[in-house]
Amino acid sequence: MSNITINTINNYGIISIHKNASYQQDNLDTKTQRLIPQKLSGFQSSESVSKSATQPQTPCNPANSFLEPYSKSCSSPADNLKKVKTESTILNPSVISFLSKHHKQSSLSTTKLRRQTVDDTIIKQKSPGKTNPSTTFTPLSLNLFQGPFEIVGLSKYETVLKQWIPSIQMKLIYDSSQQFFDSRGFNEKVCGRKNLLIIVVSGKSIFGSWHSKQIPKEKKDGFVYVKNDENHFVFTLRNIYNINPTKFLPREVNKYSKSLCLSGSKSSTCIVGCYSCYFVETLDNESTVDWSFSSTYRDTSGKGHLIFTGKQAFTTDRLLAFSV
């Protein structure tokens, strides 16, 4: 019996499956809730399918294991002929559908995870009965072969960001589509860190800021600031004016100069802001861009504060934070 090796590239990186050619997938369509590695076991050689298509099939026994020899297959010849054929493998349509659905996770999603109550009650999930605490970020454990910008759909801006930021590697530490979209969820991930990249997504606009100094601990009922950060800057990656990615440096930096502003976890709506630039709020159309932007930063775009979203008030669709 020959062995085959199948390599496939998808949202989870490069996955290798080693499987004996005399074994085939057993009733995969009824196993939709199994883990990824088990679903990927549905790959089989074209030789195996051609054999099973011509041999009599025995009735399906629910007690049978997920993978069994072809002589015990639950698939009918007609079912086998429906499978999608590639150069060297047969892929069950449910495998293709499953992988395609999860591959889309790397697009620039604008889903936000919100707390239902202040005591962290269960958030509704696609998988019933599971909770999603603010300390959990599932894609980081699944996208083992992807970079942090590729995971969140920002790979096209990775080159320019690495030109601006003197860092070899960045780590995604906060994503509002995976952690709670509030000040507590954000502060849990960023306080105490330094070399922080913040990216804000609003509609088709993408912008943010870079902060090199250590982020102080939060004040539960107030604001804390990062000051005197000589390496700080703000930037636009995508804007309504189709101006290329541009960074804006502060006009002056001294011991009184404020850059990052963090809201305490008792704040009802405010999360984070960049002084004289933007402030992120949880409510729709309550986030703002400061009209005094051009007086604090060297505006080379000529658009003033409108360069970021085209208006002063906007809705934050997604908030991301990366750290070295």
Automatic annotation (TrEMBL):
Domain TLDc: 164-314
Cited InterPro entries: TLDc_dom (IPR006571)
One Pfam family linked to the record: TLD
Region of interest (Disordered), residue spans: 42-65
Regions of compositional bias (Polar residues) in chain numbering: 42-64
Name of protein: TLDc domain-containing protein
Species whose genome carries this gene: Entamoeba nuttalli
Species lineage: Eukaryota, Amoebozoa, Evosea, Archamoebae, Mastigamoebida
